[in-house]
Amino acid sequence: MHAALEAFPALADVADSLRALYPGLLVFSAGDNRTGEPLNDMYEIPAYPMVALMNQIGFDATTLGNHEFDSGPRGLARLIDLSHFSYLCANAHPADSLGVHLRPYQVFDVNGVKVGVIGVVQLGTHGKPDSHPDNCVGFSFTPVNETVAQYEWLRKHCDVVILLSHNGYESDVKTSALFPWLDLIIGGHTHTQLNGGEMHNGILITQNANRLKRVTHTTLVLDGEKVVEKRAENIDVKERKGRNEIVAELVRFFSSNPDFQRQLTVAEQPFSDYQELGCMMCDAFMAETGADVAIENFGGVRYDEHPSGAFTVSDVLRLDPFGNDAVVMEVTGQELRQMLISCFDNDQNLFPHVGGLQCELVRDADDPTKLKKLTLKTAEGKKFDLKRKYKVVTNSYVASIADAPREDQGRSINRKTADLVISYLERQPSINYQGVKRVFETKK
Q: How high is the pLDDT of residue 287?
């Protein structure tokens, strides 16, 4: 849901309407409830507005998404304690001292039908969810499929077994082939919009695009203790006219901070993709630090379009909601090249946005997760000197995951990257990044 507060009055209306027909309705989230809206993420108790709204609607359970870790163990523990619903995650194991109260699974009784639900969260290349590593201190994690295998015994005790998965669509499809005893996988993480649901290996898989554009209403029909029919249909939330007025009043309350609406500059032309916005962020990083080169991970740019007109504080904080520190380092051109490759390898094979240079990359046509070639050029498209040293600015997440060997590991300048962007934009009478492109991809 990524903190889509504005969608909650309509979402509550959907839940109200379905409960009138099905009093035993279960409401689940596949994780990443937070991160994406400063009204939520920068609240006095970070992410509490989403918890309050989910409580009001009557969610039954959520699994952990990687962004549930964004305020660290203490922040997560506090949110869980304020929640009226369960947090199910079988492959995340917090130390007792953290006070993070997770359940690996839960069995719900729906009119005499026992519904077992297991939760799992994705793990990146370092064996942790895709949040800053510091946010996961005190947790240990086990691989998703290794963990799910330990809960086959639920099949004997439940009429229905559901996997609540923040592991991504393609991974869910692979999981379905391994565990035929599952009935349903409710998926998240990759924001894959499915048409209702898809059947894979006899298991129904559902998932929706992010920010509550749609939800899925899933129906399982049982004959005795056996599931004999599975149906899934999308319900449009974004265009829904009905509203729950109590929830609408809560949203108005949480949206009453005028500081976020302060205009910083004017966009002369609309932004139309992630790279245009990423280039703007990198330019801001360099301008504020005097760096030669800037790097912003691909996933660090949280939306892909912005209309012409006012660019506000809220727009920046939604664009860069993670609270990452700006990190500066001195590296050689060759070390920089290896950093970029390492960031690609450890960030879901997505190449980062850059400033101060151009990048030409060739993906393997047979395996797009592999780079065959990476060529660096200057900002003007000329030969890049791999031997000289460059001042590089990036965020603390990139500094941690781009773990290729380098002499200078970097140092925080004690400023958030979002602060750099805000400071840069408020000094610009206007901005125009239409058509700006610095990363060029081909396949061979």
A: 97
Q: Is the pTM of this model over 0.85?
A: no
Locate tokens 């990452």: which residue? 324
Residue 33 pairs with which residues in a beta bridge?
none
Q: How far is residue 148's CA from residue 142's CA, in Å, rounded to a whole number?
A: 10
Distances 344 to 107, 245, 292, 349, 392 between C-alpha atoms, Å: 40, 45, 21, 5, 17
Name the packing angle between helices 245-254 and 8-21 (round to 10°).
160
Condensed to tens digits (0 to 9), the pLDDT of residues 195-247 reads: 999 999 999 999 999 999 999 999 999 998 899 999 999 999 999 999 999 99
Pair of tokens at residue 270 = 């609309």
Identify the CA nearest to 71 among candidates 5, 139, 140, 135: 135
Nearest Cα residue to 417 out of 266, 258, 282, 261: 282
Round to whole Å and give the CA distance between 61 and 117. 9
Q: How far apart are CA 328 and CA 393, in angstroms?
A: 4
What would the pLDDT profile of 327-348 be if each residue is shown by its tens digit? 999 999 999 999 999 999 998 8
- Vertex 172 angle, CA 171 and 176, to 5°: 120
pLDDT at residue 133 in the model: 87
